[in-house]
Design brief:
The protein is of the alpha/beta class. It has 2 domains: 8-136, DNAb Helicase, Chain A; 173-414, P-loop containing nucleotide triphosphate hydrolases (Rossmann fold, 3-Layer(aba) Sandwich), CATH 3.40.50. The chain has helices spanning 8-20, 38-52, 59-63, 68-80, 87-115, 121-136, 149-159, 173-176, 197-208, 223-235, 239-244, 250-265, 280-291, 317-335, 361-367; strands at 185-191, 213-218, 269-272, 296-302, 338-344, 370-375, 383-392, 400-406, 411-414. Helix 1 (8-20) crosses helix 5, helix 10 crosses helix 12 and helix 14 (317-335) runs parallel beside helix 15. The radius of gyration is 28 Å and the shape is elongated.
């Protein structure tokens, strides 16, 4: 059997460089299991612990955890390294060889999965892609889940503004003051048909895509229809004029041309209207494949009711919804992204909706991290006020904000609470008079 790829000299050079200059440990991105030699793994893990404890990393502090022969080995490392200047180069060698070893182990697992004829092929493909993605992104496949110090440090740094919060904002000012799209979580966007939920989701997706990769699955509208909405918002040209081919003013044509150039140069958002991805398993497979090429910040699915699955739920529509929403949670966690999926309300809903008004509400309410509603008391004129409110939130306070939706330009912006006229009620003492 061939020995696994490794380079002991490179591993020793990294350890020696850290001993010479402790701060150089911040210049590399290695985990203990990236080292082939088990003693090198132990030494590096000790170095990490000492650095977190703000203790000097030297022969004495490390040697406390080593036997005499191991201390002798450590001395030989420091004797063989004269400078820390090449630590990045040597660390890269160690990392790439570690990835090769992990790839070899993963290939053996993939082969075992493929021979398992009782397993679902789509689940096998998903598991195998996850294995390869973890190697590609440098994730530690043998992470110590009992050591929470690194994550605790990240939380402190985010809370104290030392480190930027790892989340994505919507670009809609009133909402961003109270809410953000946290990775590894999901948001349901629910509303009646015609309120503007697709325009709302598309506006958020386009904002997030300014600096991140976004995938927008449109199971209802065509890609061209959504691009048309984007151009109306960017160019400030009425959507109806674009649809009917009646953009004639020179300034509007110039603005529309500029929006076309902006979209052409804006390659961070993928709008998918291919019906192949109306099946859950194909949709997830597409996301997992793309995540192997680049990190994905946001996935939008418009909308849930039009999504199918290869699993049979002919007599159990609620079971189907429960399964799909659970898979969205898994997708958000495995890709370290946020997932927004749009869902309609029951057709008999009248007035401001509640959690009970969502189709398949029980399973959706249980599985979704966040549930957001859009509601308007108006009768869908071109410009109207919309209440955006969070009815369920994960580690975030519930809120309600009024927005203005301009159908001409498909844009949500800060709005105001309109006067809501209550329907006149008949005198309950005179109910018999109409019999």
């Amino acid at each position: 059997m061939k020995p696994l790829p490794h380079n002991l000299e490179a591993e020793q050079a990294v350890l020696g460089a850290i001993l010479l200059r402790n701060e150089s440990i911040l210049e590399i991105d290695l985990q203990p299991d990236d080292y082939y030699n088990t003693l090198n793994q132990r030494i590096y893990r000790t170095m990490q612990d000492l650095w977190r404890e703000k203790t000097t990393i030297d022969l004495v502090t490390i040697g406390n955890n080593l036997t005499k022969p191991e201390q002798k080995y450590l001395n030989s490392i420091i004797d063989s390294v004269s400078t820390s200047a090449g630590i990045k180069h040597h660390a890269e060698i160690v990392k790439k060889l570690s990835q090769r070893r992990k790839l070899i182990r993963a290939s053996e697992l993939i082969k075992d999965h493929a021979y398992n004829l009782t397993a679902d092929i789509n689940e096998i493909m998903s598991i195998n892609k996850q294995l390869l993605r973890e190697i590609d992104t440098g994730k530690d496949l043998n992470i110590d889940y009992f050591d929470n110090s690194k994550i605790a440090g990240e939380v402190y740094d985010e809370a104290s503004h030392i480190q930027e919060l790892k989340a994505y904002y919507t670009g809609i000012e009133p909402i961003d003051k109270k809410y953000y799209l946290e990775p590894q979580t999901t948001t349901i966007l629910a509303a009646e048909s015609g309120v503007g939920k697709s325009a709302f989701a598309l506006q958020i997706a386009h904002f997030v895509a300014a600096n991140n990769k976004v995938i927008y699955f449109s199971l209802e509208s065509t890609r061209k229809a959504l691009i048309r909405r984007m151009q109306a918002r960017l160019a400030k040209v009425p959507l109806s004029a674009i649809k009917k081919g009646r953009v004639e003013k020179p300034e509007q044509l110039e603005s529309l041309m500029n929006s076309t150039d902006t979209i052409f140069n804006h390659r961070n958002i993928a709008i998918i209207d291919d019906q192949r991805y109306s099946t859950l398993e194909n949709l997830i497979s597409y996301c997992e494949t793309k995540a192997m090429d680049f990190p994905i910040a946001l996935v939008v699915v418009d909308h849930l009711e039009l999504l199918d699955t290869l699993k049979s739920y002919n007599d159990d529509p609620l079971g189907k919804v429960a399964y799909i929403t659970r898979q969205f949670n898994n997708l958000a966690k495995s890709l370290n992204c946020h997932v927004i999926y749009i869902t309609p309300l029951r057709k008999d809903v009248k007035g401001k909706p509640s959690l009970d008004d969502i189709k398949g509400s029980n399973s959706i309410r249980y599985n979704a991290d966040n549930i957001m509603f859009l509601w308007t008391p108006d009768s869908y004129p071109t410009v109207y006020q919309v209440e955006c409110f969070l009815a369920k939130g994960k580690d975030v306070e519930l809120f309600s904000e009024w927005l203005e939706f301009d159908g001409n330009f498909q844009t949500f912006s800060p709005g105001y609470k309109p006067e809501i006229k209550k329907p006149k009620q008949k005198d309950k003492d005179q109910w018999w008079s109409n019999i």
